[in-house]
Automatic annotation (TrEMBL):
The keyword Transferase applies. This is Nucleoside diphosphate kinase. The active site is at H117. The lineage of its organism: Bacteria, Pseudomonadati, Planctomycetota, Phycisphaerae, Phycisphaerales. It comes from Phycisphaera mikurensis (strain NBRC 102666 / KCTC 22515 / FYK2301M01). It is found in: Cytoplasm. Signal peptide: none annotated.
C-alpha cells in the first residue's frame, strides 16, 4: 500500500459530546499521523459541496442541517493505506450496525449522528482534501515513531 492522506471530520455530535480527544487518540494510537487539523463551523455551501454525492436523497436536508449545526474538527491524516485503514477504524455508517472496536460501533447508536466522516476512496480523499485545506495548511514532517509503526 502507498503512503496516503485522507480527510476525516469529527462531526458536530463528536464535538458536542466531548469525544474529539477519544477519536483523535484512536488515530494516534493506531500510528496514523496528523497532517492538518482545524475547528470549523461549516457554512451551508461548503457542507453541500462536501456531501454533493448525496444531493437529492431523502436524508440530504437533515444531513446538511446536522452538519452545519455546531463546529466540527477537520483533519488530514497520513499513513500507509490511511484511506482504507481509517474507514475500517470508523466502522459501518449506522452506529447500531457498526462492529465493536470501531469508532461508530463503540461510541454511538445513531444512523445520522455517527460521529465521524472519512473519505471513501483515493478520488474522494483528493477532492475532499482540496475542499477543506489549502496546501499550506498541510504539514509535512517525519514522526519519530514511524520506524516502529511500520516494519
Ligand atoms: P459514510 O459516512 O459511512 O460514508 P454515506 O457517505 O453513505 O456514509 O452517508 C453520509 C452520511 O449521511 C452518513 O454518515 C450519515 C448520513 N446518512 C447516510 N445514509 C443515511 C440514511 N439512510 N438515513 C439517515 N442518514 C443517513
Ligand atoms: Mg461517505
Amino acid at each position: 500500500a502507498a503512503f496516503e492522506t485522507t480527510l476525516l471530520i469529527a462531526k458536530p455530535d463528536a464535538v458536542q459530546r466531548g469525544l474529539v480527544g477519544e477519536i483523535v487518540g484512536r488515530l494516534e494510537r493506531k500510528g496514523l499521523q496528523l497532517a492538518g487539523m482545524k475547528l470549523v463551523h461549516v457554512p451551508r455551501k461548503l457542507a453541500e459541496q462536501h456531501y454533493a454525492e448525496h444531493a437529492g436523497k431523502g436524508f440530504f436536508d437533515g444531513l446538511i442541517a446536522f452538519f452545519t449545526s455546531a463546529p466540527v474538527v477537520v483533519m488530514a491524516v497520513r499513513g500507509v493505506g490511511s484511506i482504507a485503514v481509517c474507514r475500517t477504524l470508523i466502522g459501518a455508517t449506522n452506529g447500531r450496525l457498526a462492529a465493536p472496536g470501531t469508532i461508530r460501533g463503540d461510541l454511538g447508536l445513531s444512523g445520522g449522528h455517527n460521529l465521524i466522516h472519512g473519505s471513501d476512496s483515493p478520488e474522494s480523499a483528493e477532492r475532499e482534501l482540496s475542499l477543506w485545506f489549502d496546501d499550506a495548511e498541510l504539514i509535512d514532517y517525519t514522526s519519530s515513531s514511524q520506524g516502529d509503526v511500520y516494519d
